[in-house]
Specification:
The chain is of the alpha/beta class and 107 residues long. The chain contains two helices and nine strands; from the N terminus they run βαββββαββββ. The strands form three sheets. Strands 3-2-5-4 form a four-stranded mixed sheet. Strands 1-6-7 form a three-stranded mixed sheet. Strands 8-9 form a two-stranded antiparallel sheet. The chain starts with a strand and ends with a strand.
Length: 107
């Protein structure tokens, strides 16, 4: 499987990388937190670390650490803008449940 981006998400990441002036791509990971146990982490990557898996979609490198790989395989990342709100939205086939506030998930 792979990690994929919508056109809108790819354009947003390209814009962020251009504003930064550097970076290999976007790191997608998970951390232990919240009501349900796991939450997504997004950050820019300037260099790879051992165990990183690199996906590429629409010209964007998506880097996933070994620990997060099992939780994120098959995830699709979308960028949505609705009124004054904007942000990334995750469609993850591994999710079995989410907390009521939508900040964390279980697999």
């Amino acid at each position: 499987m792979a990690i994929t981006l919508s056109e809108a998400a790819a354009e947003r990441v390209k814009s962020f990388l251009a504003s930064r002036g550097k970076g290999l791509g976007l790191r997608l990971g998970v951390t232990t937190t919240g009501c349900s146990g796991l939450a997504y982490v997004l950050e820019f990557v300037d260099e790879l670390t051992e165990g990183d898996k690199v996906y590429e979609d629409k010209g964007i490198k998506i880097i996933v650490d070994a620990k997060s790989q099992v939780y994120l395989d098959g995830t699709h990342l979308e960028f949505k803008k609705e009124g004054l709100n904007e942000g990334f939205e995750f469609t993850n086939p591994n999710v079995k449940g989410e907390c009521g506030c939508g900040e964390s998930f279980t697999v």
